[in-house]
Amino acid sequence: MRPAASPEGQRLAAPGNHPISLGDLRADKPVARRLEGHRDTVNGIAFSRDGTMLASAGRDHAVRLWDIASPSIDEQLP
Questions:
Q1: What does pTM read for this prediction?
Q2: Position 1 confidence tier, pLDDT thresholds 50, 70, 90
Q3: Kindly report the CA angle at 29 between 2 and 70, in degrees rounded to 5?
Q4: At CA 23, angle to CA 19 and CA 20, rounded to 5?
Q5: Is 11 within 8 Å of 4 (Cβ atoms)?
Q6: CA 22 to CA 77: how far, in whole Å?
Q7: What is the pLDDT of residues 6-43, one digit of tens each?
């Protein structure tokens, strides 16, 4: 489980047990938000090329897409 940096280097996301920690490097906030939705350990994360979306895959067999501008909004893929 490795952290992922956004392409522009402004955000850092770290997987782990359930919530994903999303840091804002511009504001010097190690944990700006926690993205909740997985029911088990998050195994992998990746930012989109433009840095606006974050994809996560978990041990709960769910893949989620997160809108970084509104992290409370996510979509679970079937």
A1: 0.84
A2: confident
A3: 80
A4: 15
A5: no
A6: 21
A7: 999 989 999 988 789 888 888 866 667 889 889 899 99
Q: What would the two tokens of residue 27 be?
A: 């504001």
How far lies 21's CA from each of 2, 36, 69, 72, in Å? 12, 9, 15, 13
Task: Tell me which amino acid residue 39 is.
Answer: R
Torsion of CA 41, 49, 27, 34, to 10 degrees: -20
- DSSP structure string for 29-52: EEEEEEE---SS-EEEEEE-TTSS
